[in-house]
Hints:
Helix content is about 30%, strand content about 20%. By secondary structure, it is α+β, with helices and mostly antiparallel strands.
Amino acid sequence: xxxxxxxxxxxxxxxxxxxxxxxxxxxxxxxxxxxxxxxxxxxxxxxxxxxxxxxxxxxxxxxxxxxxxxxxxxxxxxxxxxxxxxxxxxxxxxxxxxxxxxxxxxxxxxxxxxxxxxxxxxxxxxxxxxxxxxxxxxxxxxxxxxxxxxxxxxxxxxxxxxxxxxxxxxxxxxxxxxxxxxxxxxxxxxxxxxxxxxxxxxxxxxxxxxxxxxxxxxxxxxxxxxxxxxxxxxxxxxxxxxxxxxxxxxxxxxxxxx
Length: 258
């Protein structure tokens, strides 16, 4: 079997997920879903830092955007916060973070009595604000996110119908109460090869679908990417340190191979 045939088969397999997803024109007529998470409550208090803007910083925390976005989903599905319980040592919090982020993010949420208990804090934001070093020590390594086999998608042009399908799938997942992690890129520009976490959407005045996202690079303000229904493409409307313009988006961490 030739390389080109194998590539076509692989692309077909990747694009066949969620075969029953509603068309975008149908999805936009659905009632807007409630917020899946609360920005500044269920997100991290510290940023994934930029190497280009922090030259020489000794404790630089960079290239962890995929780890951090994925961890927000893992905390939502597999941990619970108990602010009335006594606080633990930093080392104990590191271990609790390791336990919560050891679960694959595509697994079903655990029942409350089986979740990893985070005592002494009411939210991920509070925990990561007060126990920043302990939380960072407990988060997984960035290595496997940097070499994840699906990262190759950024180098290929994908047709408009594919990007429309990503938008439809993202809306369907949000309507079902699920977070959606997106790989976003404007390759061959080197400005944006990044990940964000969609947790809400709205229909813009021009009919575009505006996805509200948690951007690990910016813990202070929600980000925004839009799907232009006429052009059938995503646009970086408001992402940290990113020039507004056309991008491509791909779903991540929703089943074992992706």
